Amino acid sequence: MLLITSSISSPRWALLLAGTITAGLLFQANAAPTWIWSKPLHRAEANEQVYFRKSFELKAKDVKKATLTGTCDNAMTVWINGREVAQSDTWQSPVLVDVKGALRQGVNVIAVHGGNDGGNTAGLIAKLEVEYADGAELAIETGADWKFSHTKPRQWRRPNFDDSEWAAAVRLGPHGLGPWGKLGEAGPPRKKGESLANDQITAPDGFVVERIYNVPKSEQGSWVSLTVDPRGRLIASDQGNKGLYRIDVSSSEPVVQKIPLDVSGAHGLLWAFDGLYAHVSGKGLYRLTDTDGDDQLDTVEDLRGSSGGGEHGNHAVVLTEDEKALYIVSGNHTNLPAQITSSRLPAEQWHEDLLLPRRWDARGHARGRLAPGGWVCRVTPDAAHWDIVSVGYRNQYDVAVNRHGEVFTYDADMEWDMGMPWYRPTRICHVVSGSEFGWRSGTGKWPSYYEDSLPPTVNIGPGSPTGTVFGTGAKFPARYQDALYAFDWTFGTIWAVHLQPDGASYTAEKEDFISGSPLPVTDAVVGQDGAFYFTVGGRNTQSGLYRVTYEGRESTAPVTAENDDPAAAEARALRKRLEQYHGKPHAGAVDAAWPYLGSKDRFLRYAARLALEAQPLDQWQDRALSESDPQAEITAAIALARVGPPESKAALLGSLNSLHPAALSETPLLGLLRAYSLCFIRFEGPDASEAEALIAKLDPLLPSSSEAVSLELVRLLVYLDAPGVAEKGLDLMTRGRSAKSPDWSQVLTRNGGYGGTIRRMLDNPPPTQGLAYAFALRNVRYGWDLEQRRSYLSFLQRAESHTGGASYAGFIKNMREDFLANTSAAERAALADLTGENVVAQPAFAATPPKGPGRAWTIDDALEAIGTGLRGRDFDQGRNLFHATACATCHLFDGEGGAIGPDLSSVRNKFSHRDLLEAIIEPSKVISDQYGSKLVELKDGTTHAGLVVEKADSASLEIYLPDPNSDPVVVKTADVAKVADSPVSQMPPGLVNTLNEDELLDLLAYLRSRGDREDRAFSQD
């Protein structure tokens, strides 16, 4: 663990030493120091700089211990005898430093440069405690005997400087004085500027976790990616603009050097092919090389690629299993690069493939983003050839390769969907050739049972996936060498995912491997020394580098293939033989693939179908239409629907109609229903006679004993306008059970805000299955009687009383709107008593306006009002002001409010007091990627602001306005003069200027309480 305990050669050392300092530890002696400044309390000047001195004499040189404690509002640098010993940029976190090495016998001086960032309150408090070898003690404390100046003469920090003309410091008051209070009493469990300590991190027995480097954020940023260079050194990248860093971990203390090239913001790093590859957010793929052999990277080569930016943009770069190429990973807001030269999936197959109309996310997220979603490409080392390997992810950040040469990723959930049937938890996916995992924006996400997609290996739960890495090469027990480590940023957890071969793929179980709160894990590597290194950071949070080793009794001998399951190895080898036919015609591919179209192994069946789709249609269409095995016929029919011409429709329907659905088990029956759907999606809908015949075949199957089959039957029968589907679907809807609450209890405790929101949903689970039927039935226009209409609306009303994700209420609102659009005027009049409700949960009280008087609040004024913390506040008044100040108009908090801006339920875990105040008082200072707008200026001078989506033909842009329910503005690309980031937040400034001090503090306490009335901020003790 890197903790400097005696040397004071580094000006940052004090920040590494300081921990949480309680008031008793800080100033325990009878004669406590006092706050001092150059002017009386509350009369300091904004941005005032003051220079303080205090001389004292040490009569003996046998000093046993010397400790300096103190802080300054707002920042300070401290020297002893001209030697810098401490720095601090936040008064709430006092420094605690060993300064024995700076002292000398005779005259000494403490010199402090104090700075006030703004406002009219400033102060310095400090104490030097010296203990001699014989037990005698000396205390030097801030008081009126200190001197100050507003100018900085030469040598002012030296003991022999003449300060006789300096003024006496102004004594403000004792420790405990407001607005500072007793320092440390309400402090966090760790000091600002430090990542989580070793003893606050949990790991399995035998594993040791140690923080080996605390990243100085102001200089080196917040690290999000790691790789290992040929000499075993680590390389890390800041998420922002602080650059790349090389870390030598071979000695007891890491040696960190900045790489002297203008590259930063790399979400992916890889050393391969004699260079460092960096996949940079918003820019593309770069290769850094050392051209003169001096062990310093000196050249940057732009390899282009996609310029996806933000947290759904450019991500990892990983060496392929054969070590001949790169895997490039990007999230769902990243367009495919122009250099695409091939694809394992059939060309131009980026279809939404939704049978019924989609609704975009109710809050506007990813509105207009279409397939393929997140993607993985195989790229040659020179980046000349890009081959699409896998698609259909929401936001997978990384991929990892196991010792079998199999690739896996950890895909993100869309947490706003929670409670809705299309919610998909974070999950581990097996990234096989041509895989499609079915992410579609809004309500369009495919169920995992769709035959033209692949299922996850294992579902993890809520979270924010970042890095993935296998334990291959780690000096760990065998089970952990073969584990996939999946990083969850939100809940501070590294999951060890233990894979078990299962046919041509795997099943898995997860283990909670490493966790802490907060522990925003970002990336990891296995070092050449066999240790496991991981970073925390991201989103400008405090970053650190950690090392994990195993000191238990189990063997750490390298795992070999001797004990592998030979049947599973052969199944994977067979799948890979089929995968060689993906993407382009091969002689013999049809004959090779055909026996596996009916395989019970879904991964073999999938690989065989993709091989078929890549071959000329005249080689296999007739064979598909005459196939006798039901599963093989269905698989081939899906292939034909995906790549066949429209004139194939009649023959395809005839083939599907020859099957007897009542005789099929669940898997082929679901495949048959998907094949029908794809036939109508890709070609054209059925004519009246075709629809009538199909309804007669399918309607008797509803309801089914399989929930998935019942839902797909309802979906298809709604599409076909089947008589009676409203009655049957309504019965399934009202009988639908709430989803079984998953066991997420342990992980939810690691993020109180986000976890608390999910816990409330699990305690009051929505009728998820019923909502799946309701979403399909909203499209039925005819066949209802009035009581059935009322039953549908009453169901939605009951659903609104449950808790879900941030978009839950908005989705229900949209369902109601769609349903009512399919009613007659007379029906709407008859249903008036059930319509018009506000679907956003509102408080059961009328909000009252602030009492004031208000003021033009600044951040510094507000911080001064907060003092050392928020105590004795009024919960009810804070909740009232959340609505009275219009916060609730746009923001959801604890299940109440609007749906335009971010959900504020977890601000306590994400923001300091200053961060929160900046977001409220200066909302345009930092605008999230997720809510950032573009300014589109047309050549005629017209300007539009909103989310911009480029149409596939590049001939036009769609501009989605802040109201997620409004129609997009469509403009021709040729008419656009300029597109730029909007510097203005959609949140207006000054919303809290109507509040007096108590009201502001009540509101802030409420926001930071996560809606908990029992939070200590409301304690009156």
Q: How does this model look, in words?
A:
The protein is an alpha+beta fold and 1021 residues long. Helices cover 23% and strands 25% of the residues. The strands form eleven sheets. It has a six-stranded antiparallel β-sheet with strand order 5-4-7-2-10-11. Strands 22, 23, 24, 25, 26 and 30 form a six-stranded mixed β-sheet that branches. Strand 4 and strand 5 form a beta hairpin. It is globular.
Note the main attributes of this structure.
single chain, 1021 residues, alpha+beta, six-stranded mixed beta sheet, 45 strands, disordered N terminus
Short description:
The chain is α+β, with helices and mostly antiparallel strands and 1021 residues long. A six-stranded antiparallel beta sheet has the order 5-4-7-2-10-11. Strands 22, 23, 24, 25, 26 and 30 form a six-stranded mixed beta sheet that branches.
